[in-house]
Amino acid sequence: MITKLNNSNENIAEQIFTVFQNSYKIEAQLIGTDNFPPLLRSTKDIQNSTTQFYGFRENECLAAVIEIAIEDQLLEINSLTVDPSYFRKGIANKLISYVLNNIVFSKAMVETAVVNIPAINLYKKHGFVEFKRWTPAHGIKKLAMSIELAI
What we know:
Residues 3-150 form the N-acetyltransferase domain. By secondary structure, the protein is an alpha+beta fold.
């Protein structure tokens, strides 16, 4: 079941933090780096965030989280994480579909590491296309993808 999460609640923020840590540790290994900025995010950072969080629960456990920001009909997917215990169950796909079908937007954007082929393929499946590549200061090569709705 997908629900909006109240990230300002300390208990919910801790659950989000746990999913982030478990998922991002695997992503850091996939990318081949020890210096992965998302792993530095604290529970307090999550609690104080002004973004929106949606979670997928299975058997009362928070299995996955999608974090979004929406401004002037621009939807930004800031993070999409699935706890490794719930990999390969289609949960990330369900979260993306939920956001794309339930949030009003004219353009959606997402960024990921160039080597994160599973994420890139998942976003392509939803119609996202690459429009930019660059290497930020932390050194992990990234790409940006977007999808625009015809108005």
